[in-house]
Each structure stands twice: as structure tokens, then as C-alpha cells.
Amino acid sequence: MKQRIVFATGNANKMREIREILGEENYDIQSMKEAGIDCDIVEDGATFEENSLIKARAVAQYAKDAIVLADDSGLEIDALNKEPGIYSARYMGEDTSYDIKNANLIERLDGVEKDDRSARFVCAVSAVFPNGEEVALRGTIEGYIGWEPMGENGFGYDPIFYLWDKDVSTASLSPEEKNAISHRGKALRMIKKEISKYEDISR
After folding, report:
1. Model pTM greater than 0.85?
2. For residue 138, what are the contacts with CB-CB under 8 A and spacing of at least 6?
3. Out of 28, 38, 71, 72, which one is annotated catalytic?
4. What CATH number does the domain containing 159 carry?
């Protein structure tokens, strides 16, 4: 029987990436909604790790037999004092479209040279195991903020986040290319190793 994993998100784009990276052949991967879990979660942590653990712990109360995963991710722009940071999803309001958010960030960097437009995507993924053990791990990808959105793939801030070595946005990459280098891909692969360790111990 496959190990059940419940991921504390309702984001369909994120769930697609999670399934591609963790591998559905190995696990029964469900979103909160698919697991029938509906709970209010107040993300009041000061770091990506703290917020991801808050989410994982909250959902774990309703998914006793499952490994519960949660992530908190965002964009840090050095020239803007690492904004929007942990407030990336809520930047300019949760209901504001990313087209508007991305345009605003580009506007705020008007006149800033390429070398000073450095930025990174950060993703902290936490796991709460059925035995109560917890772990939080961070993955990052470095790049810079472009002058205009590029690409039709990806979501969120992907169209304005460019890679130094390719000079294209992460929204221009195929899902396979993006997952191989992305912040979420790195963090999930680290968590996958922790899940394997847990499975070895619990057998």
C-alpha cells in the first residue's frame, strides 16, 4: 500500500509540480481539499521555515495516518530589501493578480542595472510524520528580475524571474527543466530523502 502524503495547499499549479517531483508511482499524494481537510491557518511566522511548519502542524491534526507536507515560498529581491519575501503571496493583497504584482516590482526597479537586480526564489518544505517527528528544509534558486515578463509556463513571479546563465525567465522553461533546478524542486527532493528514511525506520 502506498504511503499517503497530504500537502497543505489548495494551489493546483503547486500540486502538479509536487506530483511531478515526488512521483505519484511511489505515494498517494493528496491536496488538503482532496483529503477533505478544511481548516483556518494563520501564517504568522517570521521565516519561510516557520510558516511552512505552522501549515504542516495544522493539517497534521486532521491527517493522523499521513505524512503531512507544507511549503512556504517566495521571491526575495535584494535591491528592495528582500521584498516581497514571506509576504510574496500577499504582496499588494492576496486577490491582486500576478500580472499587477509583477508589473509593480519591475516599476520599482526602474533604472536599476542588471547586476543590482539580483533575486532568488526561496522554498521551505516541512514534513510532519505520523510519529510526531518534524523537519523543515530550504531550497533556493538565484537569478535576477527582468525588464519585462517572459514565457507562458510557470505561475506567480516566474515570468519576471530570469536565470543568470540563460537570460530567460523560469516561465520560459518546460516543467521538466524548471523542476530540475527550481527552489521547490530542490526542497522537495531533500524532503523525499527524509520520507525514505522514515519509511525505512517504520517498516
Report:
1. yes
2. 48, 49, 122, 123, 124, 187
3. 72
4. 3.90.950.10
